[in-house]
Design a protein that fits this description.
This protein is an alpha+beta fold. Helices cover 27% and strands 40% of the residues.
C-alpha cells in the first residue's frame, strides 16, 4: 500500500510539472502597450488599401525566428489613411509561461 501511495505521489508531481506550461494572452490597449515597448523589429504581415498588420517578436530582424516561447509575440492591426497608419484596430500578444 505504501508503495502504491508513493508511486501515485511521484506520478502526480510529474504530471504537475508537465502541465505547468500555460499561455498568457493579452488584447486591446494592454497588448498595444506591450507591442510598443517590445525590443525588436515590427514585421509587416500584409497590407491592404485600408489596413496593415504587423507582428513583433523580440528578435533583431524579421528573418530571425523567435525560439523562446516565453517571450512576447504581438500582432497589431492598424487602419491606414493617406498611406500612413492612423489608429489601432486590434492588438493581441501571447507568450508561454
Amino acid at each position: 500500500m505504501k508503495v502504491l501511495i508513493g508511486l501515485s505521489l511521484v506520478l502526480l508531481s510529474f504530471g504537475g510539472t508537465v502541465m505547468a506550461s500555460e499561455f498568457q494572452s493579452l488584447s486591446g490597449d494592454e497588448a498595444y502597450q506591450i507591442y510598443k515597448t517590445l525590443p525588436g523589429k515590427a514585421c509587416q504581415e500584409y497590407r491592404l488599401v485600408n489596413y496593415v498588420v504587423f507582428t513583433k517578436y523580440q528578435t533583431k530582424s524579421c528573418e530571425e525566428n523567435q525560439t523562446d516561447a516565453s517571450k512576447w509575440s504581438c500582432t497589431v492591426q492598424f487602419s491606414v489613411k493617406n498611406g500612413k497608419t492612423s489608429e489601432v484596430i486590434s492588438a493581441d500578444c501571447s507568450r508561454q509561461i
